């Protein structure tokens, strides 16, 4: 009987370790920071229209620094934006650690935009708004103010991007 119980418990643990719940739908937040990284990044990758890459696909890498200020306060950029660890999937644009380094890796990363990044993060970005801050929105790429739509800024070849929003 004990052997059967051990077998049943072992099987249940094994199934529990490999089964994954259905991903939650992507939700675009229009709240004030802080904003965590979505757990079910696969939903956000699909909503952003980006390719689902195998976790660890590091082809054609590029790293840039992103700094965000909302109402004069710095916003922490969390680890694992664009990375779905339970499903071992990543987007072409993502973060590995907290702090502002944004990684472009894997196929199709040359088309990744600032709008894609915020969509992966699940934060409203556009029409003059960042999250709940809809007073003004300024984006600088390598020190130069962006005149067009900030969401269309290509991340590839940028070294530093600053996003400043006010309510």
Summary of the model, kept short:
This protein has 167 residues and is an alpha+beta fold. The chain has helices at residues 2-18, 41-47, 114-121, and strands at residues 53-54, 62-70, 73-74, 83-84, 89-90, 93-94, 101-104, 125-126, 129-130, 136-141, 144-145, 160-166. The protein has one domain (23-166).
Fold topology:
Blueprint: H1 2-18, H2 41-47, E1 53-54, E2 62-70, E3 73-74, E4 83-84, E5 89-90, E6 93-94, E7 101-104, H3 114-121, E8 125-126, E9 129-130, E10 136-141, E11 144-145, E12 160-166
Parallel strand pairs: 2-12
Antiparallel strand pairs: 1-5, 2-3, 2-7, 4-5, 6-7, 8-9, 10-11, 10-12
Any key phrases for this structure?
single chain, 167 residues, 3-stranded antiparallel sheet, 7-stranded mixed sheet, globular
Structural overview:
The longest helix is centred in the N-terminal third of the chain and has 17 residues, at 2-18. The chain has one domain (23-166). The chain starts with a helix and ends with a strand. The chain is an alpha+beta fold. The model has no long low-confidence stretch (mean pLDDT 91). It has helices at 2-18, 41-47, 114-121, and strands at residues 53-54, 62-70, 73-74, 83-84, 89-90, 93-94, 101-104, 125-126, 129-130, 136-141, 144-145, 160-166. The strands form 3 sheets. Strands 2, 3, 6, 7, 10, 11 and 12 form a 7-stranded mixed beta sheet that branches. It has a 3-stranded antiparallel beta sheet with strand order 1-5-4, with helices on one face. A two-stranded antiparallel ribbon has the order 8-9. A hairpin with a 2-residue loop joins strand 8 and strand 9 (129-130).
């Amino acid at each position: 009987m004990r052997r059967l119980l051990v077998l049943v418990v072992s099987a249940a643990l094994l199934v529990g370790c490999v089964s994954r719940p259905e991903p939650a739908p992507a939700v675009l937040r229009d709240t004030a920071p802080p904003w965590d990284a979505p757990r079910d990044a696969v939903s956000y990758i699909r909503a952003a229209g980006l390719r689902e890459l195998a976790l660890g696909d590091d082809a054609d890498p590029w790293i840039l620094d992103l700094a965000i200020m909302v109402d004069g306060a710095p916003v922490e950029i969390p680890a694992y934006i664009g990375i779905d660890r339970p499903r071992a999937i990543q987007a072409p644009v993502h973060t590995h650690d907290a702090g502002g380094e944004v990684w472009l890796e894997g196929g199709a990363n040359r088309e990744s935009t600032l709008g894609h990044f915020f969509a992966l993060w699940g934060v409203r970005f556009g029409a003059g708004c960042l999250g709940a801050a809809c007073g003004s929105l300024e984006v600088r790429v390598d020190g130069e103010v962006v005149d067009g739509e900030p969401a269309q800024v290509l991340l590839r070849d940028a070294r530093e991007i600053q996003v400043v929003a006010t309510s």
